[in-house]
C-alpha cells in the first residue's frame, strides 16, 4: 500500500463529473494508480466508484463541487491518501469524529461552550497531520442514516452532512447521555457496518477500577485498601484499621461529594465534606451517629470507602499528580504529561474546580519535605506507575481506551499510591490553551487515530 499527503480541492461541477476525479500524474505514479482506470474512492463511510484522470504538473486531487459536498469538503485541505492496488481502493483521511454532549448554535463563538477552544485546536492539528475532524452530539444520532450532521471549522463553525468517521473519540460528559439507546445503537451499528473504531467508550467506576487492578500482583502496591461502602460493618472495620478514611462517590468527578472521616481524641469522629465554598466540618460522638447522618446520601449515591493517606504537602496543603497517559502512533501507551496539583486553601481535595493550583512535578517535589534520595527516584517512578496502571486498565477492563487521566499521590515517605483513573480526562488540566500552539496531548490523539485507521 502506498501513502502520501496531498492537497484536495473542489472544482466547478461543469468541469468535472461527480464520478471522476483529477490527480497529478506524479502522485499517480507514486501511489501506483493506473491512468483512466476505475477505482473506489473512500472517505470514512463514503464509497464511490470513480475514474481517475491524470493531470500533468499538478500535485493535487480535484473533485467536483457535487462530490465535495457529499464528502463534506468545502475548502482546499491537505489530506493523507493511500492506495491499495489489490482492492483498487483510494482512501482519504482519516476522518475523526468527536462525540460531545451538547452544542450551542446560538453562540457562534462558543458552539461547544468551555471546550470550543480545544475543538479549534484539534481542527488545526488535524489540518497539520492530513486528517479531517468533525464534532457531533447525540441529537445527530436520533434518526438512522448513513451520514451525520456534524460541525466543522472553516472560517467559522458550520454544520454539514458528513460520512461516518473512521475513528470516534467519546467526549460525552455524563453517563446518562452515554447510555442513551440511540448512542449505544449507533456505536454498535457503525462498528459492525463500517469497522469504525471507538475509543474511551465508557466511564469508569472507582470500585470497578480498583477491583480490576487488584487482580494484578504487580499493581497491588499502588492500591490503597478500597471497598464498596455497603453498610456500617465495613465503615467500622476501615475506621478501626486507619486513622482516616475517604468516602468517594463511585461515579463522581471534580472532587464533588467526597467525605473524609477521622478519629479524634476522646473517641469522637470528625466528618469533612467538600462544598463549593470550602470544607464543611462536623463532629459526632460515635461512629454510628456519623453513619446515620450520611444515610440519606447513601440512598442516592453509591460510595467507595478508601484507606486515608498521609499525603505529601506544600504549605500544609495536600498534593497529588495527574498523569495523562495516551496511546501513540504505534498503538502503545506513553505518558504525555504529569502535573502536580496542590489543594486550595480550606480544601482537602486538589481538583482545579475546587481552587487547586498546578505546578511541575519537579517544582512540587523540590519544595516538599521528602528525603533527598526519594526526590530523585520519584520523578522516574511516577511515570512508570502511570504506565503500569494504564496497561492494567486495558488488560482487566473490557473496553477500548486511547487516553486516561491517572491521579497518583505520594505519601510522606515517598510511596506512590493510585487515587483514581478518569476515562474522560479534561483538556484544560495540563497546559493552558493557546491559539497558536498545539499541545502534545492533541497531536498524540491524532497520531493514535491515524494508527487505528491505518492512514
TrEMBL record:
It comes from the Bacteria. InterPro entries: ATP-grasp (IPR011761), YheC/D (IPR026838). The keyword Nucleotide-binding applies. It holds the Pfam family ATPgrasp_YheCD. Keywords: ATP-binding, Nucleotide-binding. Residues 207-453 form the ATP-grasp domain. PROSITE patterns: ATP_GRASP (PS50975). Transmembrane segments: none annotated. This is YheC/YheD family protein. It comes from Paenibacillus tritici.
